[in-house]
Amino acid sequence: MSDHKKRQRKVRLFGDVYNLSEMGVGTLLLIPSIVFLVFTFVIPVIQVIQLSFTNYNTVTGAMNSVGFSNYVYLLTGSSSANFYQALGHTAVYAVVRLSFDLTLALLIAVMLDSKIPMKKFLRASYFAPVVVPIVASSLIWIWFYDVNIGPFNQILSALGLPTSKWLLGENTSLMSILIFSIWKGLGYNIILFLAGLQNISDTYIDAGKIDGASNWQLFWRIKFPLLRPIVSFVLLMDFIEAFKAFTEVDVMTPNGGPMRSTMLLVNYIYELAFTNGRMGRAAACALILFVIIFVFTIIQRKIGANKTVDYD
Amino acid sequence: MTKTKSKLGKLTWKNWILFAILFVGAFTMLFPFVWMFFSAFKTKADVYSYPPRWVPSTWDFSNFRKVFDMIPFLRYYWNSILTSVLQTGLIIIISVFAAYALTKLRYPGKKLFSTFLISSMFVPTVVTMIPLYLIVSSVGLNDTYAGIVLPQISTAFTTMLLCGFFESIPRDLIDAARLDGCGHMRILFRVVVPNAGGAIATATLFTFLGAWKSYTWPLIITTKTEYRTLPIGMKYLVTESSSEYQVMMAAALMAILPVLIVFIFAEKQLVRSITLTGLKS
Amino acid sequence: MKKFKNLLTLLLAFVLLSVFSFGCLPKPAVPNGSQAREDGEEGTSSTGTDLTVAMPLDERENVTLDVWYAVSGTSGEKFVEQAEAFDKQSDLVSLNLSYSGGANDTATKVAAALLTDTQPDVALMYAGASYTGSLGNFDTGQLIQREGFNADDIYPGIWDYCRYYTGGICAVPYGISTPVLYYNKAIVEAAGVDMTNPPKTWDELYEVLKICKEKGNVNGMEGFTAFDTSDVGWLFKSMLMQNDCPVVEVNDGVITPVFNNAEAVEVAEYWKKLVDEGLMAANEHSSSENKFLAGNLAFLVMSSNRISRWTEVDIEIGAIEMPYFKTQSVALGGTVLTIFTQDEQKIEAAWDLVSYLLEPQQNLDFALSTGYLPVRASELEDEKAVEAIEENEMYSIAFNQMPYAWAYVHFEQMGTMDLQLADALSRIEKGTKDPQTALNDALNTLVEDMEYDNQ
After folding, report:
1. In terms of CA atoms, which chain C residue is nearest residue A280?
2. Residue A60 and residue C412: Cβ atoms within 8 Å?
3. By CB atoms within 10 Å of each CB, which of A98, B136, C19, C290 scores lowest?
């Protein structure tokens, strides 16, 4: 494959000079990715765009062009309150989950990175909820939250404290889902941060120590800046995860919970598409969700790009 | 000075406080599993008893038999393993190729591809599900392993993750290999892959866990019992045994325990490979 | 400049793929159905032959039927057992059985399968009539007229549960249930209520509930209430019918929802009164079964299929007939057998299966081991039915309700209606909307959605 001459062959494209053999190998290696990307992503997304302009209904089988009326229904129609409610819940869910996930995970990762006994056991304990299928762990938590025979309320009443309605209360249901989501997702970030911390070269740490830096200074001056790429990666992924959250809400509070108080955007899409069978509206809602996530990502990347640190 | 595992004698009181905090945290994380474990052996009377019973009054194994009576549990298990392994394998191979091409090679259109790849991460599965279902059905892949696995091949996350690690492999290493006359495939498998072993292990673990949990897609694409995966089987158990918590816990225990065991084993490998990986040049 | 180029390439690729994927988007397989809907008469079958007469045996061929079922647990096992017994005894028909998930999953799957023409030949599912009805497939209406099936033996109210709004019958009942009013014996006794002469109307029950609320908290638990239901829409629709509100009306083949009329508002006011007086907890219905079994609830309205399921519980449970406003009535629920196939040979085979399952003995056997209800009046005279009633008095309550069990016709937006009703009730309970406004809003949304679908 690689004789000397081939590697030397250069080509000029779009005003840049490229090595021909690198181009060939690069394209070849990307072909599998491209094939799957086209079939599992590009084509479906285009079809969803098409669907969003129809009143496609799986129950009646109707499929006629309705122009922008699906978007009108979601954004300004008489039922638009449902959409804005779902959007609001999703925003609250994302912000709360993100702030807890990042700070707690970073804190625990740093603590785990220090000299303590039973490190492996502790690490495994924090990561354990991540491994478990969400359906399985939701089952446990549904019981925890049970108003009558759930351990949470039983402990509260044993301590003489007022009990909570948890998943059944309009004001507590989203919080209950959040507690579960944080419990479930924390370990994932801990492992990523921990991997980042352990990959920090000892030379930087040693240099810091020689300079007489305290642990606190070591963390904020050396470790954290080096962790920044991982932090921004986790931030991005977590945000997307939060906006994509569906399974736990669907399993723990079917139909959006009391007074639709846990109805997140994806659950609303699912309701439109599968409970009501109205794929057109669901497609329109899905596209709006997509735009929101996309815009956030671009903003986040712009900010993240400005903050890359140089250490030398 | 160095990070060698020192024995407990060198620990200061600060370390013990850290340990105590972490231990309480770890207990909180594990408590649901402890509860599940004991509850799987409870009788219905224990479940409804007040004040609550933490440990079952009698160890009742009939809940497990009920699970097997209700659903073909072992078949679901096998399906989950098979589809998860296939899915993980495909995703990792494709991602390694792509990540190498994106980080170590220069050619036009890279940015365009990255944009496409990254945007695919932001689309919830619920968005693409209906068209995907129609596509998969039109080629007759409903109720097949291929129908479960292929549409779930989304390589964006792993590719991004691997890119991050591949970037830290110094270009000098690759240039040196090329001066030795190595082709790109040899560089990939002899230089890059061994150097990023830990990263690949991490990606594999995460991908496998994702595949193991996957639930929405297998739910709609399978109708026959013989192709269902574990989460789907569990979901159906929930619909049926609506309030029989003890049966649900027995099923959850059987679903979770082997995963936890495998995980604890794999976690050691993972940690060792991460620490051993020569990411520090 | 470079960014612009990237953007342009992206745009071009997008256009190219759009064109490509237009070809990929499958057209729904329903057009013949929407046509048939207009002339959906019972007279013509999908195959054009007269299905009221069985095909001669020498013309029959061996066929395999794909059968999906939406019942699991004991009910699923019993269904499989009966279907397999049929498979064994039939020389011509063999079955390929698959559990297709609960009510919603099965509905989603059947809807999706209809689009790609991969639907099962027969499905045991909820609201099956709205699928075959919307496809214009009224073969079942002819099949039930065959000799020996004895369709008149099945309660007329149950046939309405299998009817599409254009008039035709397009499913067969199997796995039917009604709501039943259960009560906790210990609580009711402690409150000093005499259940040998049970409350007959909702107003009488209201008085009983008040007493139970006051004196019935024998376990001294927090959040004790007197009344609840696990399925809000189901009970509410039953109550509407009892107050002479038919929920929906059909005029010249057009559905008109009427659940905001004066009678409906009366029912909603009663509902609100239950919450306002603290007799029913607001918006906690999904946990009502657990609450009842934990001894923290006096009365619970739930499906009749719980009669056989609540066997190992700690509390002693009794049941009474559903109270009423003006006339006795309970809304039907549960699954129906739906024949989707339009192949002549398969229709014959499917009918063999359906009529086997609907034989009085099979149906009673299924009913007694699952808690679903027998659909034929003659089954109640069977020895086994009498025995079952002697063993568990709650069966007699469920069986007694059958003659006045009722259903409204099936239409595509039933799901939307149920969601809207549940939403309206939760707002009434919460007090954020008064009953009239809540019902008006729910009705308007439903009408809007129906117009949207028919665009």
Report:
1. C453
2. yes
3. C19
